[in-house]
Design brief:
The protein is an alpha+beta fold. It has helices spanning 18-28, 43-49, 98-112, 127-135; strands at residues 8-12, 55-60, 63-71, 82-89, 117-123, 139-150, 153-163. The longest helix has 15 residues, at 98-112. The radius of gyration is 16 Å and the shape is globular.
Length: 166
């Protein structure tokens, strides 16, 4: 079933979403998309790092199919205008516009929180994600060359940003 045949709701994460979000992480964060696969050891560990309301989730007819997470980069008052994000969409729901909707809602949420900048990190080997972020208006701010050894080679870590006050 395609997205246009579903009802998609973007909402803040809840405690009951934990297992679905953990499952998405295991499917999405692989050696191709992250320095190493993401495997939560327990629900409690996940909730310590990703408490309820620290993400916006995409809910397609009652099924959590993606999220965008938020965190403060450093906790410093001088850095409070910046929000670091990460986004994942379940592979069965990719290429249906869900990621674009999540990023759009993340921009609205962040602006409502007084944030002026969204930032993220992506591996240079993840060309599809880089194209997606550029399509969403993110620009490259910096690059850590050969930062990770991935899949028998090296990948740069690219820092990208979207400025909400422009």
């Amino acid at each position: 079933m395609k997205l246009y045949e579903r009802t998609l709701t973007i909402r803040v994460s809840r405690m009951k979403d934990a297992q679905a979000l953990m499952d998405i992480d295991e499917l999405v964060w692989t050696e191709r998309t992250a320095p190493e696969p993401l495997r939560w050891t327990s629900r409690e560990e996940f909730l310590r790092h990703c408490p309820p309301e620290s993400q916006l989730v995409a809910d397609a007819d009652g099924t959590v199919c993606g999220y965008v997470g938020f965190r403060e980069p450093t906790g410093l008052a001088a850095h409070a205008h910046v929000c670091e994000i990460n986004i994942a969409v379940h592979p069965a729901y990719q290429r249906e516009g869900i990621g674009t909707r999540l990023i759009g809602e993340a921009k609205v949420w962040a602006a409502g929180q007084g944030k002026l900048k969204l930032r993220l990190r992506v591996l240079s080997s993840n060309a599809g994600a880089i194209r997606f972020y550029r399509k969403c208006g993110f620009v490259e701010e910096g690059r850590l060359h050969r930062e990770y050894r991935v899949g028998g080679g090296y990948a740069d870590e690219i820092w990208m940003a979207y400025f909400l006050d422009v």
